[in-house]
Amino acid sequence: MRKITTMAAALLATSVMTAPAFADGHLKITDEPVEFTVHLHNKRYQYDESWPVEQAARELTGVHLKAATFGTNTPSSAEAHNLMLASGDIPHIVGGDKIKNMVNEYGPQGAFVPLNDLIDEHAPNLKAFFEKYPEKKAAVSSFDGNLYYIPYLPDGKYGRAYWMRRDWLDTLGLDAPTNVDELYEVLTAFRNDDPNGNGIKDEVPYFARQWPELLRLVTLWDGRSSGSDTYHDFHVADGKIQHGYAGEGYKEGIKNIAKWYAEGLIDAEVFTRGSSAREYLLSENLGGMTHDWFASTSGYNISLKDKVPGFDFEVIAPPASISGKQIAEHRRIPVKPDGWAISHTNPDPVTTIKYFDFYFTEEGRELANFGVEGVSYERNDAGEPIFTDEFKAKGPINSSLYQLGSQVQRGYFQDFNYEIQWTNPSALKGIELYDAGDYLIDQFLGVAFNEEEQGVYDKNWSSIQTYMLEKQQAWVLGSADIEADWDDYLATLDKMGYNDVLAAMQSAYDRQYGTN
Fold first, then answer.
1. What is this structure's pTM?
2. Short-list 208, 212, 209, CA closest to 245
3. What H or E segment, with its residue span, contains residue 392?
């Protein structure tokens, strides 16, 4: 038998005999139960038939998915997908993390079923969604104009923000910085003036759990570190594909980041400390500022209130750049490269697309976002799903929902209301601040290459990005000088095929989004 985690088993015991309140039969897709195999891989979970959400969906629709996920022992979804393709035994449904490039490459070759006509004829909820959001359909379509997967569609605008120790500012009699020069002065004071009051010069003014978050600082010199919620990505400026790591503002930004690093304003272990940086530096009263998620970072105002007297971590507006611009480079991308597709082995694509469409009904979307009524949530007087206190007490809401089969990367439209319920007031206040300032900028939603464009990208980009990151780290750490290296750096990028990659991406972008 498939192993079931302790928590999932406990939840299963309370839910398996409990049909959802909306189970009146109107969502039934087939009178006779139908089974499809599914590959659904994520580094945190793989598809499990015991998920209460799956049992509820099975009861409502008559469709039963049987687990056939490859690479269950690897955290890498890319490796799992490659194992599946190499096997030649592709399950009926293929889903999980980062399937976009795979299905858009192999779909036109016949490995995955085009969905456009199926949606038009058999999936009214999906059809209505893409008619309402045509830009999202364009973002996931392949170069041949066909849609080969139903994406996971995040909701909400805000992801990460600048966080700063308000209690440290108050101790030193400082205001929150409003521009890059003031930020330098504040971080210098954090380093030199003992805001944690222990008499030791041990403060770490700026830190980051993921080292690429350090690179967000290049925006203070009008550079760019990414164009999407994926690190090191391309961005679009006036309809033209560009990459931040070849821009003039980036050069100034890295030069100044290197200066700040040399002066001790940036965590000396920023490239090596890893995901524990936030927990350790805040709980030890050492960290002063970071760039991190609204919801999870705000939780430290509760968890550390007893351990660190007066602890107050607040969101600050993005400091103005040298030209006066205030931007929040990171935001929730509206379309993820995750979701699910119908493979060429599928015996009944019509029933399958109807099942995909189920998750775009009101009831299916609720299942995908909130779990099962009576297990994870109840309803308020307005009929809205509200997580129970018992469920919230089990631990991080996301982790608990994953074990129910909710908030997993199937094709569905997220509901931000699920997150608002467990977001600390300090984060909600920060979101209001960012909303009022209108700091968010448009994101690059990716492109779908044809065979020739894909060949140019595959031949060149991996080695180019590796070179970019190697030089970047050397410049920040001070083992090389960006001013002295810059012209040779750009010339090397050109020799490595950087401009060829840009041309291929521009061609794909213009075709996909109708620029020309």
1. 0.83
2. 212
3. helix 389-392
